[in-house]
Write a structure and sequence with these properties.
The complex is a heterodimer of chains A (509) and B (511).
Chain A lengths: L4 H11 L4 E5 L2 E4 H17 L7 E5 L4 H12 L3 E4 L6 H11 L3 E5 H7 L11 E5 L7 E3 H4 L16 E6 L9 E5 H15 L6 E4 L6 H13 L3 E4 L5 H11 L3 E4 L1 H10 L12 E4 L6 H11 L2 E8 L4 E5 L13 E2 L3 E6 L12 E7 L11 H7 L5 E9 L5 E6 L4 E3 L2 E3 L1 H9 L4 E11 L3 E10 L7 H9 L10 E4 L13 H10 L3
Parallel strand pairs in A: 1-11, 3-4, 3-5, 5-6, 6-7, 10-11, 10-12, 12-13, 13-14, 24-25
Antiparallel strand pairs in A: 1-2, 8-9, 14-15, 15-16, 17-18, 18-19, 19-20, 21-22, 23-24
Helix pairs in contact in A: 1-2, 2-3, 7-8, 9-10, 10-11
Chain B lengths: L4 H9 L4 E5 L2 E4 H17 L7 E4 L5 H13 L2 E4 L6 H10 L4 E5 H10 L11 E4 L8 E2 H7 L14 E6 L9 E5 H14 L7 E4 L6 H12 L3 E4 L5 H11 L3 E3 L2 H9 L13 E4 L6 H11 L2 E8 L3 E6 L1 H4 L8 E2 L4 E5 L12 E6 L6 E2 L3 H7 E2 L2 E10 L5 E6 L4 E3 L2 E3 L1 H9 L4 E11 L3 E10 L7 H11 L8 E4 L13 H9 L7
Parallel strand pairs in B: 1-11, 3-4, 3-5, 5-6, 6-7, 10-11, 10-12, 12-13, 13-14, 26-27
Antiparallel strand pairs in B: 1-2, 8-9, 9-19, 14-15, 15-16, 17-18, 18-21, 20-21, 21-22, 23-24, 25-26
The chains are: A alpha/beta (509), B alpha/beta (511).
């Protein structure tokens, strides 16, 4: 008997039916209930002709319905294609066409804003709306669910595609990263082991559940551990701190930016965060000063990791017990190899910076959906080329230096923005920092820092530059500083440098 | 993915990390992987192919670990054998497994030489000898290592390929070969790594024979998560404690007998055992007092596992419940499923005794060349264990007994474990085994075979009276026999078949 993502839910529902699987607001749903709801929807989808291999888009805000929808699609042997809730019609059209999805499961308000997209998606036969139905082509989810609470008997293989997640596209058009039952389970088990998750853990999910970090690192780890997931509709530092206290959460995952906000919001007189056991950060390089401050303030462990949607989550993570190294994103999880290579794919010695390339079972054998050319480029020689720069130490700990793409070259010398951002964030007045290259006739590029200050403080450009020059080589220190109210961020809080660069190119800055 | 890739990955990711310690030998991942590759390539040069079986008749040693990985890398199937096997037993298994090669050593040489003329599938040049001096007629193991290529063997091996055949100890009938695939094992590694906290910084000590399922999968779990394995050639309580202190062992598996020996060591409480985070035990449920002593001594998590080699771990008793539940083996292990059913395969009600059945990814693929017996044991994906148990209101499983160890006296079922439990509460009793012996009137009657604590004495009448005060009188032993020690297999299980044999000799119906 093989274990798939869907069978995992069946087994927990049998072994531990009363345990709460999901909390959302006041609502708690046990594994038994969740599995029955999933089966009812899955049997409903089946009666609509949706089955093995079909792609179903999910266009929903964080809610139990999204969890039910995701698993129902998997239980009929289908592929879930989660959409960013910010997606507009033209983006949905791109993804819908690319995957030739034949159904969409959507929140009413989200769908009704973009429903015109139906006209350009001939393959889209079914629109299942959670909430109020408006047009003749829409069917209410509540109407299609079956009475049958038994799991549908569908053969699902480990190499079947469970989900296609479109990557944020820091370069070029969004590509769909395929994730198979095997690649997801393989990654999730690695992540669980590093964190030593157990069924008494309570995972707080404030990341959006259309994103890989939320779906696999948080939700799948929680369900693989038979633990409880506390879902909030969106990240809000106040809400997160309240929920940690209210539901006694033991685990939280977020981007470095989220942790910066949590630190700002934290009020020791009001917030009880004793229950927190371990937290993970990823999605962007995390300045060591943030890790240190989080660990001291919340008296918990914050593990820094590195990973990709293509690998279903973290590919390296510091261990929760054992040696954690400052500035390092840890060691590879089981089932995964990491190499550091030169531009011509030759292995580089320990300590030397090169491109991080990876392979192993967390990478789906189907790679990017429908992109043979990109696949042969990105996966050349069988290795996933991350586009990130890094090095490993003698003991195999990985250090991510930066995105290859974000590298600033000034007068022939390399500046890794992440390093400078880390330094800037250690300034007591700085909350967030982004360093990008601006064109310079002499040097080619110069480093410019965009800074969000902490609440209620002011600072001068000179002060910031001086602070940086005292800590890094002069050529690396920013030549210009701009104070901003906020920085453009992706749905998971990743700072979108491309947008900052675009703004500079347009002359807005 | 396959089991051999574990070393390949680890060797790429952290080549200089220490991974294996056995006496004075110490290996890094890169050294171990190189030796494994050399062995694997030499075995292929000898003609060993994917799907071929290789018998191993060795005591614990670092080479045992190498052999397991080398066979996995080339898709050959390991057949680890009990190193005490000899005569017809050894002949049967060597031939039944159709092994193409055999690994042996000085300690097992005589056993092999006694019967090797009757081996049908192992060629005379296919005996590989481990040791510093190698008799002429054998292939020296180290020569295979020095002559083999250090390159990764290029054999496609995937998760559905067979990895290992483990023979049942044969408490009833002929031994059966339990076939497990790479996928079975990889699932074990994920689940055990997590459940037992055998993580990247872990140092796991092997105290039981490596031919046995538990030692095999727990040691490989520790490699899988990138930790270090310490192999004991033989178990001595004193030495195990020394190793824990010296190597800062974080987890180990010991059967109750071993744990009792460690607990009884004089001065053990003065040793620094603080590195130990997890102790896993199995084979027989621990008495609550013993659990308290272990937790008191090691200040660590204590897990009790239950399962058959056929099923893998069916249940696990987690540390939080260890003291709360008495003589209990816990709840379903990870994503395994477990039920207790009546003779028609229907769930019995809570608290009632029935047969334990299990389902999940740890189940065997089949019995080697014995599809029929496999099909008999399986129904709708469930494996019927032959063990009797009951489940409480919280879903915890209690073993009542082996179905075949059950005593039927005057039409009433008596579960030896109930009686043994009472005997163990007697202050003078060290251990005991209760069996059924022929009885003209009742069919069977209850016999207690008892080992007293050193220097103690007790009469049969006193002990029977003590039992009658504590259990229903039909359960109390009719006879008591005092012995010096109980026969056990090397993994610590009491061999009840051996105890029963003299009483049932010449009778057809029982055993």
């Amino acid at each position: 008997m093989m274990q798939t993502i869907s069978s995992m839910l069946d087994v927990t529902a049998r072994n531990d039916p009363e345990r709460i699987a999901v909390y959302f607001d006041e609502q708690g749903m046990s594994y038994g209930e969740l599995n029955r709801e999933v089966n009812k929807l899955a049997n409903g989808l089946r009666s609509k002709g949706i089955g093995h291999g079909d792609r179903v888009m999910l266009f929903m805000k964080n809610s139990p319905m999204l969890v039910i929808g995701y698993f129902a699609v998997l239980k009929v042997g289908g592929t879930a294609v989660p959409l960013n809730v910010m997606c507009r019609a033209h983006e949905i059209s791109h993804i819908g066409t690319d995957t030739s999805a034949n159904a969409i499961l959507a929140d009413d308000d989200l769908w009704h804003g973009e429903s015109s997209v139906r006209d350009v998606l001939p393959d889209l036969k079914h629109v299942f709306v959670h909430g109020e139905v408006q047009g003749p082509h829409e069917e209410a989810v509540a109407r299609i669910v079956s009475d049958n609470t038994e799991s549908p008997q569908v053969m699902v293989g480990l190499d079947d595609i469970a989900s296609i997640i479109y990557t944020s596209g820091t370069t070029g058009q969004p590509k769909g990263a395929t994730q198979t039952h095997r690649s997801i389970l393989s990654n999730v088990m690695g992540c669980c082991t590093r964190n030593k998750f157990e069924r008494d853990d309570r995972f707080l999910c404030a990341l959006p559940l259309f994103n890989n970090f939320a779906i696999n690192v948080v939700m799948m780890s929680a369900f693989a551990s038979g633990a409880t997931m506390v879902v909030v509709d969106r990240f809000d530092a106040r809400k997160v701190l309240d929920q940690v206290n209210r539901r006694k959460c033991t685990y939280f995952a977020g981007t470095p930016t989220m942790f910066a906000y949590l630190l700002q919001e934290y009020d020791p007189a009001r917030d009880n965060v004793e229950s927190l056991r371990v937290m993970n950060t990823g999605g962007a390089p995390c300045p060591p000063s943030i890790i240190e401050e989080v660990e001291q303030t919340f008296d918990t462990i914050l593990l820094d990791g590195y990973g990709q949607t293509e690998a279903c989550g973290f590919t390296t993570l510091n261990p929760v017990v054992g040696v954690r190294r400052a500035n390092s994103v840890g060691v590879p999880i089981s089932n995964l190899w990491v190499r550091i290579v030169s531009d011509d794919d030759q292995d580089l010695p320990v300590g030397e910076v090169g491109e991080i390339v990876e392979r192993g079972t967390p990478f789906s054998i189907h790679r990017y959906w429908n992109r043979p050319e990109i696949n042969s480029e990105v996966y050349r020689g069988g290795w996933f080329h991350s586009g990130d720069l890094g090095y490993v130490d003698d003991d195999g700990y990985l250090y991510v230096v930066d995105r290859k793409h974000d590298l600033i070259i000034t007068g022939g010398a390399n500046i890794y923005p992440a390093e400078i951002e880390g330094v800037l964030c250690s300034h007591p007045k700085v909350s967030l920092a982004a360093v990008v290259g601006i064109p310079d006739d002499v040097k080619g590029e110069l480093a410019k820092a965009f800074i969000v200050l902490r609440k209620g403080v002011t600072a001068t450009e000179e002060e910031i530059i001086r602070f940086a020059r005292e800590r890094v080589a002069k050529y690396k220190a920013p030549r210009a500083v701009e104070f901003v109210e906020s920085l453009p961020q992706g749905p998971t809080g990743k700072i979108l440098k491309r947008e900052i660069r675009d703004r500079i190119a347009r002359g807005d800055s | 993915m396959n089991v051999g890739n574990i070393l390949r990955f680890a060797c790429r990711n952290f080549p200089n990390k220490e991974c294996l310690i056995c006496d004075e030998e110490r290996f890094t991942y890169s050294l171990l992987n190189e030796r494994v590759n050399r062995l694997a390539n030499s075995l292929m040069d000898m003609g060993l192919k994917k799907g071929d079986n290789a018998a191993i008749l060795l005591q614990n040693c670092s080479q045992y670990i190498e052999i397991y990985f080398a066979l996995a890398k080339i898709g050959a199937v390991a057949v680890p054998l009990n190193f005490m096997l000899k005569g017809k037993g050894l002949e049967f298994l060597a031939n039944n497994s159709a092994a193409r090669i055999m690994f042996l050593e000085e300690a097992t040489r005589e056993q092999v030489e006694d019967v090797r003329s009757r081996f049908t599938s192992i060629g005379s040049d296919s005996f590989i000898f481990i040791g510093s001096t190698v008799p002429e007629e054998y292939r020296p193991y180290e020569k295979l290592i020095s002559e083999g290529s250090p390159e990764e063997p290029d054999v496609p091996v995937d998760e559905d390929d067979d990895l290992i055949i483990l023979y049942t100890s044969g408490t009833t009938g002929l031994p059966k070969g339990i076939v497990l695939t790479h996928r079975n094992r990889l699932t074990y590694f994920n689940w055990c790594g997590l459940e037992y906290g055998m993580l990247f910084d872990g140092i796991h000590m092997v105290t039981t024979p490596l031919y046995h399922n538990v030692a095999c999968f727990l040691s490989q779990t520790q490699f899988y998560t990138g930790g270090t394995v310490v192999v004991m050639r033989k178990f001595f309580a004193e030495h195990s404690v020394e190793l824990i202190v010296r190597e800062k062992v974080t987890s180990t598996f010991m059967v109750p007998t071993q744990l009792n020996l460690v607990l009884r060591m004089s001065g053990v409480e003065q040793r620094n055992l603080s590195s130990v985070r997890t102790i896993v035990t199995g084979a027989a449920p621990l008495a609550t007092r013993t659990k308290e002593q272990i937790i008191g001594l090691f200040n660590c998590d204590l897990h009790e596992m239950y399962g058959l080699t056929e099923t893998g771990l069916i249940t696990n008793m987690k540390p939080g419940d260890a003291l709360r539940k008495v003589r209990c083996v816990g709840r379903p292990f990870f994503h395994m499923e477990m039920r207790v059913v009546d003779e028609h395969g229907h769930d019995v009600s809570e608290g009632e005794v029935g047969e334990i059945i299990a389902r999940g990814p740890l189940l065997l693929r089949t019995y080697y060349n014995n599809e029929k017996v496999y099909n008999d044991a399986m129904r709708d994906g469930w494996f019927f264990s032959g063990d009797l148990g009951r489940v409480d209101d919280e879903g915890f499983l209690y073993l009542v007994d082996r179905k075949k160890d059950m005593i039927c006296s005057g039409g009433v079922n008596i579960y030896p474990m109930d009686v043994e439990e009472v005997l163990h509460t007697h202050p003078k009793v060290h251990e005991s085994a209760v069996i059924g012996v022929p009885d003209e009137r009742w069919g069977e009657s209850v016999l207690a075979i008892v080992v007293l604590k050193p220097g103690e004495s007790l009469t049969e009448e006193d002990l029977i009276r003590y039992c009658k005060d504590n259990v229903a009188s039909y359960q109390a032993p009719k006879l008591v026999e005092f012995v010096e020690e109980l026969p056990r297999n090397p993994s610590g299980k009491v061999l009840k078949r051996e105890l029963r044999e003299p009483y049932w000799e010449g009778r057809e119906s029982k055993i």
